[in-house]
Amino acid sequence: MAQIGLGLAAIGRPAYINLGRDEDLGADRSVETLRAEAETLLDAALAAGVGWVDTARSYGRAEEFLAGWLDSRQLAPGALTISSKWGYAYTGEWRMDAEVHERKQLDAAQLRRQLAQTRALLGDRLSLYAIHSATIESGVLEDGEVLDQLAELRASGVAVGLSTTGPSQAATIDRAVELGRFDAVQATWNLHERSAGEALARAQAAGLTVLVKEGVANGRLTAHAAPPELTAVAEELDTTPDAVALAAILARPWVDVVLSGAVSPAMLRSNLMAGKIAWSDELEARLAPLARAPETYWRERAALPWG
Questions:
Q1: Which of 122, 129, 190, 296 is buried most, with the most CB atoms less than 10 Å from its CB?
Q2: CATH assignment of the domain containing 205
Q3: What residues does the NADP-dependent oxidoreductase domain cover (predicted)?
Q4: What pLDDT does residue 307 have?
Q5: Structural domain of residue 178, as residue ranges?
Q6: 229: in domain
Q7: C-alpha Rg value of the chain to the nearest Å
């Protein structure tokens, strides 16, 4: 049965692309304030039984916040499944108005550098290390030096994976499965963007753990911007639009982990209500019209402001 995990993309840096983040997070984006917010959120997740936490080198200080929290709560390796990703570097310098917030570099030098940085913070608590936003076009899945380094990491006991992005996610997932070198895949799937579903089913059938990210479409499937069809269903079920959106993902038989992007305990509680929703053919039919062409979805996502 699929579980809900916690992704730290929106809590480790002052600027991100989630709609409504200003309201959810507040105006104080100092390092110490966000550190405290992250620790409060992680405490709430632990208390709620969340067993998977996902981060990345490009999530600002998210790995640092997580490591400090793990140490202060004296959580042993294995108490939580911790995954992180390499390939993007955070370049925003903790500024809201940065011209570039992150920079992508998917090569062996970046892997060596960022793995050392992740290891320095998370040590032997790291369960899974993934390529961040792999695509066919990037060439990273054909880079022998990268693949060899990942094989060494895998042999040391750390699982290796990839996350995907863009309208061609399915092709990237299928190529990763074909290579037979990965243990997990993290991909975008939500009520608006469903194009990777069949490929993710094939990946799980091949033995990969399937994680789903951006389940609420960067806030577009929450109360901040939910389409009328989703709002109506949520009201009828006496729940929230984000819970319905995440319940749709939990209902997919090929999903292992659905990542919440919550930045507060209240938002996390709202997300976790997804587990109490009984999905049905009626809900599936009513919300099917929300699906968009992948090219449209990713074009709209690229236009979202960092705020």
A1: 129
A2: 3.20.20.100
A3: 34-282
A4: 86
A5: 3-302
A6: yes
A7: 18
